[in-house]
Design brief:
The complex is a heterotrimer of chains A (about 375), B (about 325) and C (about 375). Chain A has about 375 residues and is mainly alpha-helical. Chain A has helices spanning about 10-25, 40-65, 75-95, 110-135, 140-160, 175-180, 200-215, 220-230, 230-235, 240-265, 280-290, 295-310, 315-335, 350-355, and strands at about 30-35, 40. Chain A has a domain at about 1-25 and about 50-280. Chain A has a two-stranded antiparallel sheet with strand order 1-2. In chain A, strand 1 and strand 2 form a beta hairpin. The chains are: A mainly alpha (about 375), B mainly alpha (about 325), C alpha/beta (about 375).
Amino acid sequence: MVALLRGFYPYAIAILIAFVMYKVMPVGAEKIDLGILQINSFFTKVTGAIGIAIIMAVSLNIVNGYTGQFSLGHAGFMAIGAYTSAWITHYGSIHFFGNANAMEGLFTKGSALFVASLLAAGLVSALFGYLVGLPSLRLRGDYLAIVTLGFGEILRALLNQTQPVLDEFDIEEATRGEIFTGLGGALGFSGVPKYSNLFWVWSVAIITVIICYRLKQSIHGKAFLSIRENEIAAEAMGVPTTHYKVAAFAIAAFFAGVGGALFAHTLGNIVSPNEMNYQRSIDFVIMVVLGGMGSISGSVIAAVALTILPESLREFSEYRMIVYAILLIVFMIVRPDGIFGIREFWEVKWIRRLFRRTPKETHAP
Amino acid sequence: MIKLVQTLLSSISVGSLYALIALGYTMVYGTLKFINFAHASIFMLGAWFSAIIAAALLANGVTGIPAIVLSILIVMVICTTLGFVIERLAYRPLRDAPRLNVLITAIGVALLIENVAALNDVKIPGTQTTIHGFGTQPGKMPELLANADLFSIPLGSGTVVVDKVDALILGLSICLMIVLEFIIYNTRLGAAMRAASHDARTAALMGIPVDRTISITFIIGTSLAAAAGFLYVMKYPSINPPVAVTWGLLGLKAFVAAVVGGIGNVRGAVVGGLLIGILEQAGAAYLSPHFRDVYVFALLIFVLLVRPTGIFGSTAVEKV
Amino acid sequence: MSAAVRRITVAAAMVAGLAVATMAAHAADDTIKIGHYASKTGPEATFGQSSDKGVKMAIDEANNAGGVLGKKLELITYDTQGKSAEASNAVTRLINNDHVVALLGEVASSLSLAGGEIAQANGIPMITHASTNPKVTQGRDMVFRVCFIDPFQGYAVAKFATDNLKAKKIAILYDQGQAYSVGLRKDFSKAVKQLGGTITTEQSYTGGDQDFSAQLTTIREGQPDAIFIPGYYTDVGNIALQVRKLGITVPLLGTDGWDSAKLKEIAGDALKDCYYSNHYTPEDPRPELQAFIKKFKELHNGETPDAMAVLAYDGANVLLDAMKRANTTEPKALAKAIGETKGFKGVTGTITLDENRNAKKPAVILQMKDGEWRYAASIAPPADEK
């Protein structure tokens, strides 16, 4: 699996793109005037939300798309990541810097802590993904959906009962247990230092897409797909199906955890158990299903579209879920594989035709 | 002691509600092999329609037992019709599709029902007609049974109160379950249902109209959900708005009951429902009311790991 | 660089371009834009709908009188659906996309906290008309309010319970998911203890819960003289019904989260002789208020305004008044003028903002009598408030 991470240029380019986006997109009162279009910092916020949605949808695609399992607990992994990283940066900032305010600038001491918290969020989440993946050894399809749902709901109920968040003054007389469980309860984890910005979000988003794409092309990806197509046949061909099913969960959970961590550190987002219930999981499932189960570019496009649409159609918010629901049903009946199916969008015939270099020969009448 | 008896009583009443909903899940799963996520939405519709119909009946001077009987019948008819339409339009085209696709469709149907029900007033463009949904506000079930206590038994230092509504829930659930048991095991229709559930293809070869049998199974399941919705609002007269997470959770817990009892098994669903009821109520009373859902889902994970086929389930052989 | 990576890079760039291109922007013009965010749909919808009516009335009146600073006012309202994530989205959009000069809004404290964070970060003044949790304005010099705060509200209910109802033992049932409810529980129990009473037990629930029997059974065991429920009307109706079903007859005490016509509709007789603290009562004979109620009724088919509508009207007028005094809409100067509001004659009473940007006003206690909420008492702020 380490081979998936090889190379330097893809990552350098990913970081460069993210850096350019961070520099170009306006913050606060700045804006860019493009004549017909005025870009302001609301665009920046939406662009950040899109990045996180891409991370979530593409990673969910590993489980729901490649491996053909059905997870309805992706928001749960997101919550684990969000809480883990928020705990680290909040209490870490108090411990190292004396208070929990975010520092200005792209690279500060706080950023180091933030990056560490991103990794920790991913790892803790992956551990939970492994644990949730274990029942998939015995269960399949829809049972697994219920177990992952149950996992999310148990997590929500437990997080609801945690202790209030401690600030730098409370922490002096707090016991270890109080600090460990100081996650804010049902009110949510307030006062998370807002370290995230477009640079971090889009670096992670593009790297996630690269890794998931390579994963799909690799021998491991073929193993995932074989489980999806026919588990028994895959096993007969010598694919260690249990190993791969659990791995799919753990990898997806890792990225979801990092996505949750980025979400937690973005200004204006609230980390609370009730914001990450199964309805949010269903949002991600909708992105994967509409984009195409197994298509990374499909997930990306669906994540972009389904994040922008509610923002630009805010007046019709009542009808948003109705439209999604109808789309889901119609797609399942008419085009069960989603827009692109398992293909990437440049592999789809009619799109290829659009980008063909030499014009198609036409026969003279 | 009083607390124990009272908890047991409420467990039975909540448990029979779960059992009623679980029956629908288990019957659909038995024949169609997918989790009908829309079942919880039908249950929600049953609850809301009950309130509206009961209010209309009261306004027209129908009260007491006739009002209860009438509203429960009307609600069952409405929801059954809806269930039939759903099965025809959304599920039948997918009869041969992979199970995951059907599952996603079911989620779609559930979302559709919830969100359409949650609309406030929708003006149809170009006309004067307005469609009234249930909105996003909590609703209220009018009181059909005045003076709620049926009887109270002195016990030790206090009294145990038996509610009329709880008695109604228990009585009606038992009646419906006996009727169901009779249909499944003592009629030709029941035999067809069992055959279709056992092996749809062979059943079709034997001349059983499988599609129609499945439709009927589906309809019976939805009518039970509608009845459960009615009983639920009799017990909890303040009704949560259609989009509230509560409905989905209730449905999920009922599904857990079906799994615990052994999915596809009618008696198992009843036992599972009662078990979930006891677990939830006793847990809430003696441990902490905040972990209601945790107890239930923990039981689910435990059962799936230890005995995935449930208490009454039989092991299915994986066919290649 | 492999072909695949190049394709991904191109795709990412396209995605970014698409993200930018699909949203339209508003051009600036010669009106003063005021943003309002409210829960017009969602479980607490009556809060947002009432607020909307109040704000609209104030803005329309100002426009009919020729506008402010020689310009017409333009009100932009977004729905929050009662969700904090939507609230923060709405506020970001109001500030960055619509370029409003000031914000009005939210009733629920948790939503005002979410919106206030963004208003503060962007330096746009915000007036909340009905969020009573102290944290809403704490440490945020751009966030103001025209209502009393929870420490006082908790005190008012405690004072009323101990003095007027002679309740010595009080139980609390609060919503652990609402900042408003959690804060009030603390303030109330502190006040009760100061006034010589005791709290028998503190139980909690989560909004949307349906079965409260476990909590209520525990409450019943303590045999309290009254039960304090600082929740929102959506749950309180259900709780009240179950309280009476369990044979508990003591009065229930509530706070301004109860203020909705829905509550009476759901709970009905279960609320007989229950009390809640509110910002105003329609029975108050002051002419400003009666004139407002008369006008409100004319506009809305004889509907009596609830406290949220009245407060929203006041909130908007405090903002317009500050604009006139500051003679500019520049955010800093406007915020300074709002902070200097003194003796403003609002319809809910005289509004003076203190150094913590909160208004100090008396609370009224309403009692359910013969199926209507009637004025029961008025509790003035304690003289030596810390």
